[in-house]
Every structure is written in C-alpha cells, then in structure tokens.
Amino acid sequence: MQQLPQLQQLFATLPIEEALKQTAALFPGKTRFSSSLGQEDQMLTDIIARNQIDIHIFTIDTGRLFYQAYDTLDKTTARYKIKIDVYFPQADAVQHMVKEHGVNLFYESVANRQLCCNVRKVEPLNCALQDTAVWITGLRSAQNDHRKNIPVVEWLEERKIYKINPLLHYSFDEVLAYLEEHAVPYNPLHDQGFLSIGCAPCTRAISEGEDARAGRWWWETSHKECGLHLVK
User: Fold this and answer.
1) What is the pLDDT of residues 152-161, one digit of tens each?
2) What is the CATH classification number for the domain harbouring 96?
C-alpha cells in the first residue's frame, strides 16, 4: 500500500500510456490486465500493445460465452501479435454446480446466479491474479452506480493488490472515438445493441434509452455485478 500515492499521482497527471508504462516499470512482471474483450478493454489492449508496455493480458472463458467473443479474441491476438492467456473455471466445480442446481440455475434466484458467477468468473480471476501486484481493469464510472464511487487507483486490502481503472472517467463516446481512430477490433454484437456483453444466457440487447447494463441479468433488479469488482 506504500506506493498508492505514487500511483495515484501517475494517473492523475500523465497520459494513460505513460502512466501504464511507469506502473509496469515499478512492478516488473507483476502487472496484469483483465480483459472481458469489451470495447473499453479492447481500447486498453490497443494502448498496451501499441506502446509495447510490459503488462500481462488475460481473459476468462466461462464456458458460456457468445461465439463472437472467441472471434474477437482470435482477431485481437492476430492483429497485435500478443499473447492473451485464457483462464477457465474448474471442471469439477462446474460439474458439481450443474448436478446440484441445473444447467440454467441462474434464472432461478439471485443466489444461484451469484453462485454461477463465482464458479465461472470469480474463482478463475482469483487464480489469474495470483502473484500479481497490480490489477488493471477497463471499468468506467458511468457503467453503473457501484462504479461511480470507486477511485482510479485503489488498494484492495483483502487481495493485497493495487487495482487501477485507467478509463474510469472516460465517456462512452471517447472510447468509441478511440476504437474508430485506431481501427481496433471489437465484438460485432456491440453494433447490435449489446453494450455490455457477458455470458450468452445472461445477456440481451438493450433498447434505446435503457441503462448500459440493463441487458445483463435482465430478469433481476439487483446491482448488476457478477462479483469480480465487488471484492474490497
């Protein structure tokens, strides 16, 4: 936690690419970026790859993704000639969950949906972040109420890790402008009304005027988080 003020200063005063470079230099080999392959994450991947920043990129395959997500991953690694590690849920945990609760358990209750997210997302994330000092994310404050209250740089005491959200105060239009300017590959579902894309059974397109995350777990009235970004 000693370097929290230094990291906060970097991201408050420097362009993203320079702040990321200096962060990676402060924590060589221990800075990791978790990409969900969404538009914000594709922007950050482009910044990291374009500037050859020593930040390890990974993503999580829950086993229930849209096929377009796999195509996006393939196009991204081909375009930038970079390695993106893919983490998977434990097969035994998935098998036990499905045996006990059914393959589409998430529709039955919020508790079941959170269980599924924990098995398919949170536990693989825990594995991916082992021996990591800095966790980079593509969160933006405008995405939902919870994210409005987080800082750009924070210390997660439970994880003993710095979490940095470089795009936190970017607008959606700024993200789209960057993707267009640099011809960044992105999931074609975004052009079909899917602003926030998760697992296929839990994501739908949204209508004009709906909240950006209204298409995630649309049958719930919860806070629309899977748990990845709720751990403090």
Assistant:
1) 999 999 999 9
2) 3.40.50.620
